[in-house]
């Protein structure tokens, strides 16, 4: 009887040990690395199409699952500081207050610039004037009467485009009169395509990579050429003008990683700044942070 008891005891010890070993093995397999695992990334809604393309290629290359959450800039920062996700893509770096917030948690934000974007002004195709002066836009935002601008249309009152232009005009808030805001860049395109006299303010990414929902509306809008402050020339938000620094509403894009570990966020940031990610930026019509190299094949005979 004693031998049977000892045999059963040994058996259960072995089974328990095997169970623990399997659990540890599964835990190691599920552990997030720079190219494997699951992560959520907060993304500025104005550049959503570009990041969707980047994620699709990254996931097809690595054993990774990235959940994209697109919001306005203010909403993103609120979620980011509440630790909804440790990774965010913004059209500006963190300010000193935000950096100190993470330093108190002993986390050093890793900031990677990966592209230069543009804010675009659009109008109805029936409006004959395709030029707009940034001086007039700033004057309008300050509340001064400008006959050429009947109204501005934004994607969201908390958007990065609103923050960019209010900073430019040195005001805290937009004027109450003749300013419209919706919930997305798609709604801005639709509204401007259906209404004359309005100037829409959107991320150029939505024009370069339109969704099915707005593709048909693009035939009914003009992309305006913009005259910078204290300038006398007008420039369109093209890749060439971004490269030459002549378009006055250019802005850099950053991926900011505050995971505090060497996780998938670090891997995705490296991907964005690497050759494949930069080629995706180049193909999108934006300006890559570093121009991908071109291989030239020289043949001795044709």
UniProtKB/TrEMBL annotation:
InterPro entries linked to this entry: PBP_domain, Phosphate_ABC_transporter
Entries under Gene3D superfamilies matching the protein: Periplasmic binding protein-like II
Q: Which domain of life is it from?
A: Bacteria
The reply to whether Signal figures as a keyword in the UniProt entry is yes
Which Pfam family, any one, appears in the UniProt record? PBP_like_2
What UniProt keywords are attached to this protein's entry?
Answer: Signal
Which residues does the UniProt record annotate as the domain PBP?
36-274
SUPFAM superfamilies named among the record's database cross-references: Periplasmic binding protein-like II
Identification of the protein by name: Substrate-binding domain-containing protein
Source organism phylogeny: Bacteria, Pseudomonadati, Bacteroidota, Flavobacteriia, Flavobacteriales
């Amino acid at each position: 009887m004693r031998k049977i008891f000892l045999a059963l005891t040994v058996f259960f010890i072995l089974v328990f040990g095997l169970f623990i070993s399997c659990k540890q093995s599964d835990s190691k397999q599920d552990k997030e690395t720079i190219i494997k695992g699951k992560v959520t990334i907060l993304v500025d809604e104005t550049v959503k199409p570009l990041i969707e393309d980047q994620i699709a290629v990254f996931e097809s290359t690595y054993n990774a699952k990235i959940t994209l959450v697109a919001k306005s800039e203010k909403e993103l920062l609120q979620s980011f500081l509440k630790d909804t996700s440790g990774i965010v893509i913004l059209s500006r770096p963190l300010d000193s207050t935000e950096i100190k917030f993470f330093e108190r948690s002993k986390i050093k934000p890793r900031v990677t610039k990966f592209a230069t974007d543009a804010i675009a002004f659009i109008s109805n195709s029936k409006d004959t004037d395709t030029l707009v002066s940034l001086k007039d836009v700033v004057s309008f935002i300050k509340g001064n009467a400008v006959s050429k601008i009947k109204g501005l249309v934004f994607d969201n009152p908390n958007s990065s485009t609103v923050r960019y232009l209010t900073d430019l005009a040195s005001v805290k808030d937009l004027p109450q009169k003749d300013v419209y805001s919706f919930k997305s860049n798609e709604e801005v395109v639709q509204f401007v395509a259906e209404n004359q006299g309005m100037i829409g303010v959107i991320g150029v990414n939505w024009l370069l990579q339109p969704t099915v929902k707005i593709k048909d509306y693009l035939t009914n809008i003009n992309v305006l050429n913009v005259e910078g402050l204290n300038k006398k020339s007008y420039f369109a938000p093209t890749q060439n003008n971004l490269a030459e620094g002549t378009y006055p509403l250019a802005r850099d894009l950053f991926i900011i990683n505050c995971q505090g570990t060497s996780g998938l966020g670090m891997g995705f940031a490296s991907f964005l700044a690497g050759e494949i990610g930069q080629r995706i930026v180049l193909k999108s019509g934006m300006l890559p942070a570093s121009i991908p190299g071109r291989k030239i094949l020289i043949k001795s005979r044709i």
